[in-house]
Design brief:
The chain is an alpha+beta fold. It folds into two domains: 19-112; 113-169, Roll (Nucleotide Exchange Factor Grpe, Chain A, domain 2). The protein contains three helices and six strands, in the order αααββββββ. The protein has helices at 11-15, 21-87, 92-111; strands at residues 114-117, 129-135, 145-150, 152-155, 158-161, 163-168. A three-stranded antiparallel β-sheet has the order 1-4-5. Helix 2 (21-87) runs antiparallel to helix 3. The longest helix is centred in the N-terminal third of the chain and has 67 residues, at 21-87. The relative contact order is 0.08.
Length: 169
């Protein structure tokens, strides 16, 4: 059962017996060299991609922190004015001051791209409005918003918070 080396025929000799051993070695060496180059190139591309991914993740995180910081910085004057309002005495001037602070907040948020969702008197839209009550209202078309309990807002067309409303039957 034991086979000697002479009895075993290599695959190379079976496929191409006319190819000499001297010719196979340079071909194998050249293929090994090409394989090594391809593996090296693959490793480099893989490393470049990992670096790119890490760098873009870092940039996204930094950009998010910057945007959040800018938005908060824009709101700080409103907070300052509310703190001043707390120390002032009650009366018509107090109400006027608080209204001015509200206007300042609305202007700041509008400048940041925030839009109020129109609701009062509008046709109910479940994408923009959250109906929490229904009522039988005379002289009002069905599915019309009759009262707004909480304003809704969107940013760049995306709804941040739907308006909380009462709708006519």
């Amino acid at each position: 059962m034991e086979e000697t080396k002479k009895d075993v025929v290599s695959e190379e000799e079976q496929v191409a017996p006319e190819v000499a051993a001297e010719e196979v070695d340079p071909q194998v060496a050249e293929l090994q060299k090409q394989l090594a180059q391809a593996q090296d190139q693959y490793q480099r591309v893989l490393a470049e991609y990992a670096n790119y991914k890490r760098r873009t993740d870092q940039e996204k995180e930094q950009l998010g922190a910057f945007v959040k910081g800018e938005a908060l910085k824009a709101l700080l004057p409103g907070i300052d004015n509310l703190e001043r309002a707390i120390t002032s005495p009650d009366g018509p001037e107090y109400r006027k001051g608080v209204e001015m602070v509200i206007r300042q907040f609305v202007e700041t948020l509008t400048a940041l791209g925030l839009e109020e969702i129109p609701a009062q008197g509008e046709v109910f839209d479940p994408e923009l409005h959250n109906a929490v009550m229904r009522e039988d209202a005379d002289g009002v078309e069905p599915e019309t918003v009759t009262e707004v309990y909480q304003k809704g807002y969107r940013l760049s067309g995306r709804v941040l918070r739907p308006a909380m409303v009462k709708v006519a039957n």
